[in-house]
């Protein structure tokens, strides 16, 4: 009997001790301490993540601007095909005119060269 009473008393004491520990562990000041401890450990890492994300956002914005600028340049180039065709036609026309001028100057020189020189290299006068 004595043994059972002792076990009952020990059980009551352990139950009260467990209940006290549970209340103490869940007391608001302890909870706030645990929260503060968690924030103190987590905050530097979160701050680093925030700065990393801001840096990545700036880089992304720069890349987006570059891509949009390149797209607008390509669109304006596709719209300018008419101008390039005009330039091509004008260049072909200029080359053709240059060839005509060169060939007419070559014929003129050939036509003038034999009549310009007379008697061993003296210039021919027109009779004046």
TrEMBL record:
Residues 119-128 have a biased composition (Basic and acidic residues). It is found in: Lysosome membrane. Keywords: Lysosome, Membrane. One of its GO terms (cellular component) is lysosomal membrane. Pfam families: BORCS8 (PF10167). InterPro entries: BORCS8 (IPR019320). The keyword Membrane applies. Its main location: membrane. Residues 102-128 are annotated as: Disordered. The keyword Lyase does not apply. Belongs to the BORCS8 family. This is BLOC-1-related complex subunit 8.
